[in-house]
Every structure is written in structure tokens, then in C-alpha cells.
Amino acid sequence: MVGVRNLLVGTWLLPAAYGTFSTSAAGSRSAASSTISSAYSQFTIPSDSDSGAHLIANIDDPEAVDAQSVCPGYRASNVRESSRGLTATLKLAGKPCNVYGTDVDSLDLSIEYLAHDRLNVQIVPTYLDSSNSSWFVLDEHVVPRPSSDKHASERRSDLEITWSNKPSFHFKVTRKATGDAIFDTTGSVLVFENQFVEFVTSLPRDYNLYGIGEHIEQLRILNNRTVTLYASDIGDPIDLNLYGTHPFYLDTRYYEVDHRGHHTLVAADNADQSKDYVSYSHGVFFRNAHGQEIIMQPEGLTWRTLGGSIDLTFYSGPTQVEVTKNYQLSTIGLPALQQYFTFGYHQCRWGYHNWTELEHVVSNFEKFEIPLETIWNDIDYMHGYRDFDNDQHRYPYSEGEEFLDKLHSSGRHYVPIIDAAIYIPNPDNVSDAYDTYTRGHKDDVFLKNPDGSEYIGAVWPGYTVFPDWHNPKTNDFWANEIVTWHKKVAIDGIWIDMNEVSSFCVGSCGSKNLSMNPAHPPFALPGEPGNVIYDYPEGFELSNKTEAAAASSAASSQAAAAATGDSGPSSTTPYLRTTPTAGVRNINHPPYVINHDQDGHDLAVHAVSPNATHYDGVQEYDVHNLFGHQILNATYHGLLKVDSNKRPFIIGRSTFAGSGKWAGHWGGDNASKWAYMFFSIPQALSFSLFGIPMFGVDTCGFNGNTDEELCNRWMQLSAFFPFYRNHNTLSAIPQEPYVWDSVAKATKSAMQIRYAILPYFYTLFHEAHTEGTTVMRALAWEFPTDPSLAAVDTQFLLGSALMIIPVLAPQATSVKGVFPGLKHGEVWYDWYSHEAVDAKPGVNTTIPAPLGHIPVFVRGGSVLPMQEPALTTKEARATPWSLLVALGGHGAASGQLYLDDGESNVPDETLNVEFTVERSALSVKAKGRWEEVNPLDRVTVLGVETRPGVVRFGGEVVSAEHVQWNSTSRVLSVGGLQKLTGKGAFSGNWTLKW
Ligand SMILES: *[C@@H]1O[C@H](CO)[C@@H](O)[C@H](O)[C@H]1NC(C)=O
Ligand SMILES: *[C@@H]1O[C@H](CO)[C@@H](O)[C@H](O)[C@H]1NC(C)=O
Fold first, then answer.
1. Is 497 a catalytic residue?
2. Can 198 be counted among the known catalytic residues?
């Protein structure tokens, strides 16, 4: 939920069909001051307490020095080679440039072939333990280094690395198979300073790079922009830094191969549909947690970071699948296995006032017969926004117990938000005591100021402290709070928010202000005077003319009133530019200014400041991007203390490489705009690459009001995302799917599909958890030989078997999409009609898609295990099975099913089922001890070209009344199987022949 002070006004690129779009200013900087009234009459933290210095981002600064033009680079000496790589010393090759810090004169280089498909280059200062506290090297317990295989050697590697000292140290990583340099620092100098590290690689013109998050943009990163990484609490600006940090990219290259096997690189966008290509993909992970900036240029990229060391791993693939698996298996870890229920539908909003209202929402879902699995609470349930403490008027424990008992017995679940910050009580008011703070203070687990006092920032409750994850006691403190609170409120998961870590003021702003606590945040909450929501989706002015006009004029008056109270830096305020002091770091205002998206680009704005100090002396500057990661780890282990055998369910906002081991992620505070519905697809696909498949966004949009048409389309689209949740901001119009008849209907129709394919979702997640595969997939990943798919992000695949082509624009009745693979015999079937799609290779095909209909296609060659839709996943799991067999070009198909109890951390009874179809026979092989008692009802086979003769299940003839074949649609349907599978659909192996 939002911690935004200002919703950025921006323009961004959309696929041509959507044109250029800009947000309205309705959510912009509020003019909150200490006079703003609020529900509680309380002190409002002055808005200027969240203002920092006025800096100019280096990339915008005409006076900025290019380190490449002034720095001397390094020279390698003392080189020791082995079959596994080499080590060397890098000495500064000239006079220090000290451009954005102090040059390190001696570095240790280590190049290691870690496995046949993994290579690492590490460069760290030689004198790590000198009196200098400047060097920070990432803790391997927090962010593991890539593992190595004992048989690795240069000879066995897909990759080869060469280096040279002329004119200064540089290296080149080549893929042996193509002879292509995948990473090449030739022609650049290495810059390694205490607050600034820079390396440059050339890339082929028209490269295809993906990943480097978290940010919101198209799937394929543009070659003319800067990607900034610094965890920021901000409402989903386009192209700017966001909540999480994932310094990883996938690079896919397409080649034409001649008869001698010679590879010629081609630009994906100019590829010729009539030709055949091959592709090679590799991954690059930069294991560094500092604020970073990656300058994307037409023929290369420049990577800059504000500290730490160089630890670069290259994953050779050569497919995206292998890259992603390798990255997870060897380096960041595999995604957490989710409970079965988490794939049901989740409903949330900021502004559910009390248990009664929650109960009302749940009963509305029942009344409208819309599936609901989990009801969520935003911060409304808290007593004065304090973690682990319910408001006893609105969310009393006793009533909650009744509510949750009833909810749980209906098979449903409850997940509340927990914020990263902890309220610090007003010392002048004995009745303000807060046990969580008291316990944490006693254990001394909170972040400190440089002078050793508690660091006191501000978040929702007023002035707050922050858990320090470097203190070994903090995880226990956190776990104990979770366990203690769970005894009062039987939660089924935790939603971690504000963990960037956000603070609504610069520095320890509360140190002298505790007697003002509890305090109102330094901005107006949505719905408060000055921040009334008048925003609607694009196209609202067409569908609701009068209402749109009224909202627009109200928004203008509000904006005009706010403008007069704006106290932001004026354009004439001179910029603060800092210059390096030898050997001393300026962590508050580093000489290199990243294009951080908070006011003035100041790292201290809207976050815990860089000088906050950890238990081990480490400054927040060096670990800011890891706070989110560490609280997710602590929360995961806290939930295990509640129940050691239940998979923790956590959705977190700020993540780092590897957070998927513990948590899923939602797209943060988006807005109710069509553009954000589109961006949800590339954002999800990026998180597939980051090893966080449990992803979804605030469906129907968070900030601003939604409308009927957008919510209709979005409820249908999100039904095919792993994490399916509708969430809304405070005071916006309600957007539960039952609010509009048409949305209720559209939602039910998409949920019919989702709930039927829950076993498929679950199987995909199990595979992701055990092997590192992805769930939501880009077309380019499943069809790696088709360059025309390199940038496709307006449609996607769910696993390998389903393709979704959603409508992403208002007022549309059709959508255009491509059907990949047709040239090579791929067949696609319409989900609804079961008929094979008639489309041409590479042609953008128009697909009818009236409001309420989401085009979904089944890929030939797949077998989908399904159950019947129901109102909860528990009920769905108790229904008979069916199989949807979509025959591929040669009449073959295959599929898998994984089952267990759906919640045990280490289930001892599991079932793996393999489906294989060839020569008009489906054979089913089941292995494992999980007893699946539900029978098989029906097998539907798509693409059966000729009328089948006798159909046999096992040895038995299926009576003709249960066999139907449609000569137009070519669908064979075999029913009446329940009595033949009375012991369970997969209690033994069987074959169905037709
Ligand atoms: C960046 O590239 C995109 C896509 O090629 C283009 O539309 C845009 O105009 C470019 N922007 C700048 C600032 O050059
Ligand atoms: C609960 O909240 C609703 C909606 O704000 C309100 O109408 C109702 O009076 C509240 N009920 C109780 C018991 O507080």
C-alpha cells in the first residue's frame, strides 16, 4: 500500500497501438501542512521534513565528468593461471582520477570457470582490512556467491575469457559456439573507487536485453535510456527506479547460420519471416547491492555502482530456460513452493473499516457466486497503524476470532499487511506504551544513528524505529512478534510493505519530536482535503462524459489550490554538487548522483537515510537495497515458527536477487490506467527472470478510481497471473468485481478457466520450485528461433501450454495477436470453441474480443489436467478430473501433474503423473504415495482428424453414448469415465485409445 508522497507525472513509450500517454496530476505533491485535519486530531509531521538536498543527476548534468575520459585504468600483474581460471593483481595504471571517490590503487582479480555454463569475474580491493572503512564487500550469508562445480575447467566451458593490459586492463568473454563476444570491456577503462565503480561493455547494435529491475517499462529494454536501481517507495513511475533491486539481465542474440556453420548476427526487428534463425541467450548477474545505474547505449552499456565490489557471473544458456535455471540453481536460489490456496482469488482494499465490513465483502462474493479465496487487510486493521496490534474498536480480537473461524471453515483465508517500521511510543504518555517497541528496545534490535542513539524516522503511525537485520537477535524478535500476534489473529500469510525501507522524513527526524507521537504523515491521505481522488482511466471521458467532466474540473481546482502551497525547490535553487575528499566517503551526498526518483535525487528522501548505522557498524548506504530482502527472510522464518510444516505465504514489496526463496511480489502502487494493465505483463515477465514467479499486480488499479470497462478487462487478464488480487486505495470508488454486473460476469467467466486449471498452475509452480523454470513466459522464450517475437509483451504464455492475448486498450472489440511456431507446424486451439486457429505465420491476426471475453489459446502438443471450477480452491480440489488433450502437428501431446496436500513444507506424500499421447492413445503413468481420490470424468481431445472407431479405457470399451466426435470442430469427447476410475483418476496407470 502506498507510501507515496507524489505520483510522478510522466510520459512513456507504449507499443504503437496505445500512443503516448501521460498521467494526470491529480495525485501530485500534496500541500499537507501541520494544519491538515485528520480523523484523529494529531500533529502532522511538517512536509518539509521529507525534503533533502537539491542535486542534479549525473546523467542530466552538463558539468558531469565522464570517468572514461579521465581515469587511468588498471594493469594486471602477478598473474597465476590454472585450468579453472586465473588470479592477478590489478594496479592503478596511472595517476588516480578520483572522479567520484577515491581510486583504489590495488585490486585482486579472480576469474573462475565455475561450471561448463558459468563463469565468474571478481574484483575486490586488495587491502580490505586496512584502517579504511570504505570498502564494503557483500556478506555471502545474505547474498550467496554462485556455486562451483568441481569438474569445471576452461576446456569444458561454453565460454572463454581473454584479457589484455593494452592499453589498460580489459577482458572479453566469448561464446565458443558462435565466436561472439558476449561481454567485452575493450576500449574502456575500469574505474574502481570507494564510492564509484564503473565498467563498460560493448554490445551488438540492436541488442535484445531483458531484466535489470525493478522498473516498469516494455519487456525489451530500450537502448537509449538509463536504468537506475535504488529501492524506492514510490507509486510505480515509468522507467524510473522502483521497490526492488535485481542486477541481472538476459541477452538474446539471433543468428543466421550458413551451410558451413558460420553464424551471422541479425537484428531481431529486421529478420525475414521466410528465413530460419537460431538464437543464443546468456545471463549476466552483477552481485552488488549498492545504488546503481546502467546507461544503455546503442552499442553497449556502462554499469555504475556507488560502492562494493565487482562480482560478475555469466550464464551461457544457450536458451533462456537454461539461463534462468542456472541463475536460480547456482546463485540466488529456487522460488518458494506456494500453498495451493494461494492460487485462488484474493480481494483487498485500503479502506475496509472493520470486521463487519470484511464479512460483508465475503458474503457479497458468496451472494454473487464469485470465487473468493482470501480476504486481505491493508493498514486499516491496525491500532494507530502499529504492527502486531489491532484497533480494538474496529478490529477487536474477539470478533476477529469469530470472523476467522467462520472464514476458515468456509475454506477461505485471511492475509493482512505488516509494515517494516515500528512505532515508538510517546514518552510523555504512559498509556501510549507499545509492547512490540518495548521488547525490541530491550533487545536493542533497532537501527541506530552514528552516535549510537536509536534512529527515528516516520511512517504511517508517526515517528518510528526500524528493525536492524544485522543484529543476530532481530530475526528472533521479529519471529516472536509474529508468533505472539498469530495467537490473537490466525493469519494465513503476511503482506510485507514499506520495506525499501521507507521513511517519510529525512534523517532521524523524530529524535526531538517524540512527544508529538502519534503523528500524521507529512502529506494528505487519499480522500483528505487536498488529495481527493478525481482520477479515472483513459477513455472514461468517452464512456462517462458528464462524470468525467465534473471530475476533471474538480481535479483542476484541487491542483490549483495545491500549487500555491508547494514548497519544493524552485528551478533557480542552485544544485548541490559534492566533490570527493581523499579517503573519506560522503555517504549522504555521494559525488556521483544516481537518477533516484525521490525529490532532489537525494538518497535520504522518503527512506531511512544512508547514515543510519547497523549493529556491525555497516552503514545503511551500503545495504539499503537489502533491507527488503532481509525482512522477507525474517518473515519467512517467523511464519515457520508459527507452524514449521506449513509453507509460508508472503507477498513483499521490496525484493532483491534471491527474495523468491521466501516471497512473492506484487507490482506495487500502480494506477487505474490502461497503461498499467499493459505494463503488468512485462513486469511479470521480468520477475520470471528474477526467480519470483509468484507475481501479480493490483487488479483494476490501485491509485485513482477505476471504471467498469478497465476493471472488466483487468479482472480477466489477472486471472492468468500467478498472484491474482484486486486491491484499491483509500477513498477511491469500490472496485470489487461484483460492483458492476458486467464485471461480475466477466470475472466469473475468466475464473471458470482459472479454477479449472489450478492443477496446471500448481504443477508449474512445483516445477519452478524444484527446477527453476518459469510460470509466466514471454513468447520469445518458448519460440527461441523466431526473432520477430523478441519484443512481444502484449501477449504471453502461461507455462508452455496456454497463450493469453488480452485486450489492453479502451473501447476495443478485438485485439491483434501472433500465433508463434505456425511455420514449424505448431497448432493453436481456441480455448472456448476448441477449434484450431486459422492464422498465418508471423501475421498479426485480428481476434474478436468483445468486452467480457479474453482470448485464450491452447498449444497443440499439450495435455492439461483440470478439475471443476468452484468458489474455493478446497472445493475445486474435491471435484472430478478431466483432461484436455490438444494434439500437436503429428498427433502427439504430453503433460504433467504434480499433487500433494498443498500446504506441507516437506510433504511426505506426493504424486507425479505423466501424460503421453501418440498414435491415438493417451497413456497415464502415476508415481507416488499421494492418494488422489477424485475420479476422472472426461477426456477431451482437440484436433482428432478422423472419426474414431471403438474407444477403450484400459481393456474396457467405452460405450458409444459417452463418445462424441464433432466433424467440424474435430473434437473428441470421452465421458462416463467416473465409474471406471472410482478409486481415483490416477490411482494406477491407464491408457485411453481411440
Ligand atoms: C529511444 O528509443 C525509442 C525506441 O527506439 C525511441 O522511440 C525514442 O524516441 C528514443 N528516445 C530517445 C530519447 O532517443
Ligand atoms: C463498519 O464499517 C462500516 C463501513 O464504514 C460502517 O458503516 C459500520 O457502521 C461499521 N460497523 C461497525 C460495527 O463499526
1. yes
2. no
